[in-house]
C-alpha cells in the first residue's frame, strides 16, 4: 500500500502541471454541477411549500410566481451557492497542501540521494 502511494505520488509530482490543470477543471465542473442540482432541488422543493399550487387551483395563477422574487427564496437559492463554495474552498486548500508537501518531499529526496 505504501509503494502504491509512492508510485501515484511520484506520477502526481512528475506530471503535476497536467494533473493540476485537469484537477482544477474537474473541480470547477463538479462545483457548477452540484451548484445547479442543489439549487434546482431546493427550487422545486420551495414550490411545494409555497402558495404556488394554492394560487394555481384556488386563486390567481400569477400570485404563485411572486415567490421567485421573494427575499426568502432568493436567500434559499444563494444558500446552496455558499455551501458548495465553502466546500470547494476547503477541498482545494486541503489537496493543494498535500500536493505542495509531496513536491517538497520528492525534491528533498532527489537533492539528498542523487
What does this structure look like?
The structure is a single chain. The protein is mostly helical. The chain has a domain at 27-105. Helix content is 83%, strand content 0%. It has four helices and no strands. It has helices at 2-14, 16-48, 52-58, 71-112. Helix 1 crosses helix 4 and helix 2 (16-48) runs antiparallel to helix 4 (71-112). The chain is elongated.
Number of strands: 0
Helix/strand/pairing category = mainly alpha
Query: Low-confidence segments, ≥5 residues, pLDDT <50?
Result: 52-68
Which term fits the overall shape? elongated
User: Treating each run of at least 4 consecutive H or I residues as one helix, how many helices?
Assistant: 4
Order of helices and strands: HHHH
Instruction: Give the helix level as a range of percent.
Output: over 70%
State the distance separating the first and last CA atoms.
25 Å
Largest β-sheet summary = none
The proportion of residues in beta strands is under 5%
The averaged pLDDT comes out at 61
Rg: 23 Å
Transmembrane segments: 12-33, 40-62, 74-102
Keywords: Membrane, Transmembrane, Transmembrane helix
Amino acid at each position: 500500500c505504501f509503494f502504491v502511494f509512492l508510485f501515484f505520488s511520484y506520477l502526481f509530482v512528475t506530471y503535476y502541471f497536467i494533473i493540476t490543470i485537469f484537477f482544477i477543471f474537474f473541480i470547477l465542473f463538479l462545483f457548477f454541477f452540484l451548484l445547479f442540482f442543489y439549487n434546482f432541488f431546493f427550487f422545486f422543493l420551495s414550490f411545494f411549500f409555497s402558495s404556488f399550487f394554492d394560487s394555481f387551483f384556488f386563486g390567481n395563477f400569477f400570485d404563485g410566481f411572486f415567490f421567485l422574487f421573494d427575499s426568502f427564496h432568493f436567500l434559499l437559492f444563494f444558500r446552496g451557492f455558499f455551501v458548495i463554495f465553502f466546500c470547494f474552498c476547503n477541498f482545494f486548500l486541503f489537496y493543494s497542501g498535500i500536493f505542495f508537501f509531496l513536491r517538497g518531499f520528492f525534491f528533498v529526496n532527489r537533492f539528498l540521494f542523487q
